[in-house]
Design goal:
With 337 residues, this protein is α/β, with parallel strands linked by helices. It has helices spanning 33-37, 44-66, 83-100, 109-115, 160-170, 177-185, 210-225, 229-259, 274-283, 300-309; strands spanning 2-7, 12-19, 23-31, 73-79, 104-108, 128-133, 138-145, 148-154, 263-267, 287-289. It has 2 domains: 2-116 and 295-330, Nucleotidyltransferase, domain 5, CATH 3.30.420; 126-290, Nucleotidyltransferase, domain 5 (2-Layer Sandwich), CATH 3.30.420.40. Helix content is 42%, strand content 19%. A hairpin with a 4-residue loop joins strand 6 (128-133) and strand 7.
């Protein structure tokens, strides 16, 4: 079967076709970064309108690349995310489902990220620990099987991706800040500042990044007052990145040991961070899996493969499903499992 995947949860329009026989056969992604950069963050109304402009042409192009006229099923991101953006993708998916008389699968955005490594040649076997890290989420999840998710820890305040973006903004690096901060950190000394690793020494598996963000702000202000900010930017960036990665890796190792899990999956936008990847691989005794860099950010391929794995849950396009908030551990095990 050929499954069309549609992702519109935030500011990227992602479309892909996944074949249950041939694997991923086509995918395309349009990023709205340039549209939102002037505002320093995503503007929901602008995001929704751009999805409207981009979605149908992307679908047409991807179907042509896949060499098919229509898919056998459609999967779309139903949440969590910006509700207006989700409605655009859900509306398109529902309309096409009715027009093509094919089943429709509503996919949880974070389940898509969690399953993205399944697109690779050597996918992880169950069970594994998932570290899902992005601008909106920082979660540790014990994954025993499809739909068998136990939330072990989450952020108590800011997501790590948000902390990266806000630190980058403090340093005048623009939006989105994560990649720019990582590049700047390469030329800095990550031991120059003794920044905190909140929650790292505590038994809980939750994260906290607001204290780290505040500590960076104080160092930036001090450097500005001394007229030394430009000279110290790289050191501040490197020290922040090291503290954030230490927090993520430390909690993930703690969770894997506690749960007896020998495989770790790192996914989400922050999963593209090279220091996070190298530190996890160096410090974890088991196997570490990542999606390729193109599939760390929001994309249609992860939604398409999630749809393929959840075809047993497919329904009809009677309503448009869009949930701004949706707990991952509330998902059901697929009917066929």
């Amino acid at each position: 079967m050929n499954i069309l995947g549609i992702e519109t949860s935030c500011d990227e329009t992602g479309v892909a076709v996944y074949s249950t026989e041939r694997g991923l056969v086509a995918h395309a992604l349009h990023s709205q970064v340039d549209l939102h950069a002037v505002y320093g963050g995503v503007v929901p109304e602008i995001a929704s309108r751009d999805h409207l402009r981009r979605l149908l042409p992307l679908i047409q192009n991807v179907l042509a690349e896949a060499g098919i006229e229509r898919p056998d099923a459609i999967a779309h991101t139903a949440g969590p995310g910006l509700v207006g953006a989700l409605m655009v993708g859900g509306g398109m998916a529902s309309g096409l489902s009715l027009a093509w008389d094919c089943p429709l699968v509503a996919i949880h955005h974070m389940e898509g990220h969690l399953l993205a490594p399944m697109l690779e040649d050597e996918p992880p076997a169950y069970p594994f620990l998932a570290l899902l890290v992005s601008g909106g989420h920082s979660m540790l999840i014990a994954v025993r099987g499809l739909g068998q998710y136990q939330l072990l820890g989450t952020t108590l305040d800011d997501a790590v991706g948000e902390a990266f973006d806000k630190t980058a903004k403090l340093l005048g690096l623009g939006y989105p800040g994560g990649p720019a901060l990582q590049k700047l950190a390469e030329s800095g000394d990550d031991s120059a500042y003794a920044l905190p690793r909140p929650m790292l020494g505590k038994p809980t598996l939750d994260f906290s990044f607001s204290g780290l963000k505040t500590a960076v702000m104080l160092e930036v202000r001090k450097a500005e007052a001394d007229g030394e900010l430009e000279a110290k930017k790289a050191d501040i960036a490197a020290s922040f990145q090291r503290a954030a990665v230490d927090s993520l890796v430390g909690k993930a190792l703690q969770a894997a040991k506690r749960e007896g899990l020998e495989r770790i999956v790192i996914s989400g936008g922050v999963g593209a961070n090279t220091l996070l990847r190298s530190e996890m691989s160096a410090r974890f005794d088991g196997d570490v899996y990542y999606p390729r860099l193109a599939f760390c950010t929001d994309n249609g391929a992860m939604i398409a493969i999630a749809g393929a794995l959840r075809l047993a849950d497919a329904g009809t396009a009677e309503t448009i499903r869009a949930q701004a908030r949706w707990s991952l551990d509330s998902l059901d095990v697929p009917q066929a499992s």
